[in-house]
Amino acid sequence: MSKRKTTRKRSRTSWPARAAHSFGKPRLNAAAPSHGSIPPAFPGKAFPIVGLGASAGGLEALEEFFKQMPPDGGMAFVVVTHQHPGHTSLLPELLRRCAAMPVVEASDNLRVKQNCIYVARPEGYLALVNGKLQFMDCPDSSAVRLPIDYFFRSLAEDQRERAVGIILSGTASDGTLGVKAIKGATGMTMAQEPESAKYPGMPRSAIATGLVDYVLPAGQLPQRLVAYAKGPYLMPSGADADADAALPEPMPKIIVLLRNRTGHDFSSYKPTTIRRRIERRMNLHQLRGPQQYLSVLQDNPHELDLLFKELLIGVTSFFRDPDAFEALGKTLKTMLEARPDDAAVRVWVPGCATGEEAYSLAILLREGAERMKKRVTVQIFGTDLNSAGIDAARTGVYPDGIAVDVSRERLARFFTKEDGHYRLKKEIREMVIFAPQNVCKDPPFTKLDLISCRNLLIYLNGALQRRLLSLFHYALKPDGLLFLGPSESIGELRDHFAVVDKKAKIFRGTGQASALQAPLDLSASAGETAPTHAGIAEAAVAAPQPRLSATFERLLLGRFAPASVIVNERGDISFIHGRTGSFLEPASGQPRHNLLEMAREGLRLALAAALRRAARQKSEVVSEGVRVKANGSFTLVDVAVSRITEPESIRGLFLVTFRPARVAIARPAKRKKSASAGLPPGRVDELEQELQFAKETLQNTVEELQTANEGLTSSNEELQSSNEELQSTNEELETSKEEMQSLNEELQTVNAQLQSKMEAFSQANDDMQNLLNSTAISTVFLDGQLHIRRFTEEARKVFNLIPTDVGRPIADLASHLNYDQLVVDATEVLRTLAARETEVPTREGGWRLVRILPYRTTENVIDGLVITLVDITRTKRAEQAAEQSRAYAESIVATVRGPLVVLDPDLRVVSANRAFYRRFKVSAEQTERRLIYEVGNGQWDIPKLRQLLEKILPKHSTFEEFEVEHDFPTVGRRVMLLNARRLEQPPTQRGRILLAMEDVTESRGQSRSVKKDLRK
Question: Is 172 found in the same domain as 84?
């Protein structure tokens, strides 16, 4: 059973009365009426107050919401957003353009009114107290600001079931804890559909709690909200029904359906709690009558699961009621001081919900042990009915809103921050063991030092509360502590618990026996338990007989029936008829209604003998002429005892009647003279009568003794046989004990091995995690259905991933890649098992190398895919730069008029420009990748050129204007000036040689002509 926050009583009529209210014909999933037909809701009464939380991208969502919201819905709206303190907010002005209601900037001590919109200021926190807005200073300027959580919590506490929380577009997780608080107060919650939100972080975090009632686009939320507000759940009504009254029809049938579906019985819950939860579910479905909801449950089992979760909503937080936890910390300190080193402390938290309270106790105990420098083994058991809550508690991950409840020192000491969430450190998580449990029927933990059961008992009826408190007393050590909620008490078990701190509700067990005796059930058959006097009288009065007949029979009984008594076999009186004062009188001492103890002198022995004989035989036993002393004289009475066989209710009892003796006992005709001759007249007859009675009694006693001896002999034989069986059983138990000890040793060994393996696995997991993070490679692991199994931190830079995305399809996630074929390629790799590698651009202008490989297990089984995304932006840009440089160089080379040739270290032609091909009448195919000496049918096989390239160039990086005169087959004799330079290359690449040629044949010819002319 899960903890829930205390629900205040509200004035309302019972469900049947409200169901018969003039709501019109009930409808299932009926659409909300059009805006124009909505009458003013809640006139002059309490009305719903709606809190809207938004962050980044929230303006668009707020505009869509208020465009569809009618101006006369009868609700008030408070908008809380994330804005930088000191920033001048334009939000009120922007909302006035789209809203049909007045938009007011919230101010301190402003009373909230219907059909108005209030916008929180950027600075401070906004709270709601008694229907008025209050501005609060931020408790810590360095902490993360969570204004939505702060307002939602105050809204839930102030408005209870009239609170409505709506989460719109935004980042991180602000508002998640506020949603939990509103649901715990039986309010209603809504969230914008993440796919329609510009930033889905906040809606997705709220939806992950499983407590959001409606998930819709922002423009569709008003219609549902108006329909919910007009439902009977929030309608004003009369006086509240009796909280302890039985559940009206058909609620018991709903309880039966829940028990058949979930295996858990809610019949011991307080009727008010169950009724309000069911009414809220009815309101969500727009149902006006409980019979309709019963039909929905019968036709839709999934609704039973939702109702089950509704009844198990756990409202809890870290260090809830800080003053109480501070007092508990002092008490635990005293307890730890009395414990030796290496002592074990066992704690049980029934109804732990999502684990905050259990972890709070773990932190308290760890802090106490560290302050006293003691080694203490702490084992905390957290149990709850809700398996989903147990799973959440085991992970130890909570929204960043817990910063409001946990101090900065504790956050830094016991938590690590992860993507807008806090994760408890391993040392705290290992102190707590979580498990599903029904505290009402499952066995409890025992030998406990502390039980913390807060805000659970208030939802249970008195009988179950007493039973659980008795169970807690049994489970605690003699000096164990019990920690209850502020609205709970120990009730009737004051003798079993001593008060340690009355205000904090801390109690200590007294060690007294805790078994609570149930009242005797007088409805059992008389053969098992004798009815009381009052029980038989009530049965007689309740007998459905005609009034005249009953009066007549009573008159006859009073006039003619003798004095009678109904007793059981032991003589305990159940009913008395007539005047029995002459035969019975109260015994001295504590009053006891036993026939044999109340019998007057002379009657006890006769009654005892008659009862024994009547118990052995079926016929009536009569003792005549019994001498009874009453009022100083003796009278004779006939005593008759007979077994009652009808009616069934008193079968097995005995009817004892007292009648005056019919005749006196005849005296003997003749009597011998004896020592008794001197006795008074009649004394001898009395003595003879007593002697005869004594003989009969002795004879009966002897017979009963013989019978008893036979029974004892038979019992002795049975006991001997039982003793032998017990000895055999004891030997078997001894053997079993030895086997259990051996098994326990084996389990300890296995546990040590598992612990060692777990440590090795944890170390390997940490190494692997650090390896993946150090490679700076984005990695995503998918299962066979292409659902997210795991991802690295770097993957968040490519995909919008958060921890709750584990289990979601990869196709549902947005990414920064321009890669629409990701799912298609992943499916193909999963089908063909052939790896795929693709260079993909990103929307930011970068590049990623996407590799998709099959995921192989150690058994060589394909169990999904591994997607790695390597950032190749720098490499890609370098390639692009190199390509641009190459193209640039080639364009320059191509435009140079002189022939140019690029050679590799082996003097093979890498490339040449168009001037070279044109001048020497060769093609690229005939030139490239050939030795320079082989180009043009060997026309460059020039001895001077060989010497230049092979000997001079390696020694010198350049040479200039080296003149070569040669006959070229294609162009004739030419004079060429050669210029060469070694091109610098990276160390990983081979060098290059640039050879430039300048044809100076004409200039040389003219120079020679001039020289000849000068000679002449």
Answer: yes
Q: What is the pLDDT of residues 567-585, one digit of tens each?
A: 888 888 888 888 888 888 8
Contact 182, 166 (CB under 8 A): no
Q: List, in order, residues 6 or more apart from 355 with CB less than 8 Å away.
A: 382, 389, 390, 392, 393, 394, 396, 432, 434
Chain-centroid distance of CA 729 in Å reads: 44
User: Are residues 576 and 592 in contact, defined by beta-carbon separation less than 8 angstroms?
Assistant: no
Q: Which tokens sit at 608? A: 């005892």
Structure tokens at 807: 């289990």
What is the C-alpha to C-alpha distance for residues 65 and 219, in angstroms, rounded to an integer? 5
Q: Let me know whether 470 and 327 are in one domain.
A: yes
Residue 196 belongs to a domain with what CATH number? 3.40.50.180
Domain extent at residue 630: 554-664
Amino acid (1-letter code) at residue 858: T
Q: What is the CATH number of the domain that holds 623?
A: 3.30.450.20
Question: How far is residue 703 from each of residues 77, 640, 974, measured CA to CA in Å?
Answer: 93, 21, 159
User: CA 266, CA 310: separation in Å to the nearest integer?
Assistant: 12
The CA–CA distances, whole Å, from 693 to 596, 662, 677 equal 17, 18, 22
| Whole-angstrom distance, CA of residue 576 vs CA of residue 272 | 46
Query: Integer distance in angstroms from the first to the last C-alpha of the chain?
Result: 128
Rounded to the nearest angstrom, the gap between the alpha carbon of residue 488 and the centroid of all alpha carbons in its chain is: 23
- Mean of the per-residue pLDDT values of the chain: 80
> How many CA within 13 A on the CB side of residue 369?
18
The predicted-structure confidence for 927-946, as pLDDT tens digits, reads as follows 888 888 888 777 778 777 77
Helices 251-262 and 301-311, axial angle in degrees (round to 10):
100
Backbone angles phi, psi at 821, to 5 degrees: -95, 15
3-state secondary structure of 116: strand
Cross-strand bridge partners of residue 377 = 344
Residue 718 lies in a domain: no
The verdict on 846 and 790 lying in the same domain is: yes
